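Q: Hi! First time doing this. I have a protein sequence and I read that you can turn it into a structure. Is that right? Here it is:
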Amino acid sequence: MTGTHHADVIGSLLRPHYLSQAQAALAAGQLSPPEFKAIEDRAVDQAIAMQEACGLDVVTDGELRRFSFLDHLLGDVDGFIPQPGATIVFHGQEGQWEWAPPVTVASKIRSRRQITVEEFAYSRGRARVPVKVTLISPLILYTAWNPAVSTAAYSDAYELFADAAAIIKDEITELARLGCTYVQIDSPDFGTLVDPENRALREGLGMPTERTMTEGIEILNSVADVPGVTVGLHLCRGNNQSMWIATGGYDYIAEAVFGGLSNFDVFLLEYDDERSGGFEPLAKVPDDKAVMLGLITNKTGELESVPDVVARISEAAKYVGLERLGVSTQCGFAPVSVGPNHLSEEDQERKLDLVGEVAHQVW
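A: Yes, that's right. Below is the predicted 3D structure, encoded as structure tokens:
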């Protein structure tokens, strides 16, 4: 797949206003589930058509059926109690914002249902190009780990991560059975390790960085061992309401992540501003892996210029052969349905149009 795959999209799209209204009406009992599903289907249809019109090589359903990109580990898995997890600090142009997941691991985790099966089965019938399904890294559950509570079920967090990895691999295996050929694992866990602040947070929770970069890498690698599926890893520095968690280049994690994740085929990397550092760490990417350069920001509505993006691709090609490169947005547009990034649906479409235009020009 990667040989002709150069225009990508990360995952979430802005929820149309009518979908947000329908979600509120459903919650208030003013809309029946069948009525809501028809509206949800309409939103997915429009999202797929928009992405195809922008010239993307793959599409997603925009994660429009989810509350957040974390749903399949925090929303449809047993083993949590309603107690806030670790506090994560987001940074932005206007200051800081503290967030904590609403749940903490308190018993062995077990999946209630496979949420991506419905998503893929529907989208597959609507799209003319391959449909990518997004899942989350098992190590993101560091945010729901509380040593005072969670050790009643797991001796340490890495046992929890291994159980989460099994849930995710089962989901990918079922997607493969249904004909899915491209799955993306979103990894704010490894993406934020570039920042000393986030490393210190996890060290304080009993997760040594050295262990995360060895045993943690092995656990993450296990989810991608599914024949017939191209598996990509999106390294995210955090994304919520145009704010971020981490700052730092890939130098700190390049050897462990690019070299250790042998079962992954594509690395989708944020490169929209100086917070991501330079392209030099791409020299650590093995020759049989592809790289999607996230050169188009979705933190703001300001549109990049085609010549500037093309020039940056040429710079990256000094470290990774041009045919192994592609272009995408830097992250999702609305990882959480409440509080999307600060740009409009029109801005979003222009950004994706730019991805398609640049890919057509370069490749």
